[in-house]
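User: quick one - fold this with fe (ii) ion bound?
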Amino acid sequence: MEPRIIDSPLRTVFEFDYGVQAEDMRGLYEKAKRDQWNASRDIAWDTPEPDDGRVLADELVDGYGSPIWDRLSERDRVELNRRMAAWRLSVLVYGEQGAMLACSQLVDIVAGTDEKFFQATQVMDEARHNEVLERYLQTRLGGLHYPMPANERALFDVILGDPRWYIKTIALQLVAETFAVSLFRMMAECARDPLLGQVCRRILQDESRHMGFGMLALPGIVRESSAEERREMEDFTCEAVEKVLTGFFPAEVYQDVGFSPAQVAEVQAYRRDVAARNDYAVFRKYFKRDMHTAMVTNLARIGLLTERVRPRLARLGVQLPAAA
Ligand SMILES: [Fe+2]
Ligand SMILES: [Fe+2]
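Assistant: Sure. Structure tokens for the protein plus fe (ii) ion:
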């Protein structure tokens, strides 16, 4: 695939004071150094595959349980399961690349040595995530990739093209990583391939540190922002949440298994119906609740769960606790 070129104006802050100034931030950096893992050493790549070839639980395939699903042969179900896994992992592997690039920009533009040191570790973390997911795709799924969905591309175009560190951090460490943590947790739980479970659990070890950066760095800038800047942060947060939550439908996965356009439409209708009834398998329900709770809690902690933001999140289907 051709690389994507994104222009990004960066303002590099060269620090001269290297002593500890922000102890909490330096603590995150220390943890990052201590907890580095290595996909070449710490993942058991020779773990046997499940006999039936499934990667994830069938319940994660949209259309599972529908009449069209019931008519599929076992071979087609397994094929759909594997292609759906390749699609999800493709979305994630591009996300890791985007996160690595965003953090490398953050090394330049954040002020403070502790912040720069931490971001340098996140660059390495995201490189390892990019690497481990790609190795999984190559090892288990024959290197099959699906293209980057439009929503994800639009989100990273903004993250990488905006010069301000806090816009990058709101979108990446706050919104996208909150979402990714819930997603990796769900995938770890319902992986049928134990190797995928290992990969997801290793990635998760790093993610709380990444969210920790946002939790430490953002409250101050939100507190000190002017009314106009605050409004911009609120708007941007809602747009990022919307991009992350808007479920893109991987029609190409179904086409590749041989579904006709009418059958793809049937699956989409079934998916809308399931969503309207919130009639998901237990772990999908749990994922939604887990992610919404984390998103709301994190936004509240950094001071962005304001009266302007609450109704907009509610319209996006985010479950909010009653206003305190
Ligand atoms: Fe990551
Ligand atoms: Fe991350």
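One thing worth noting: Residues 99, 126, 177, 207, 210 surround fe (ii) ion (ligand 2) (CB under 6 Å).
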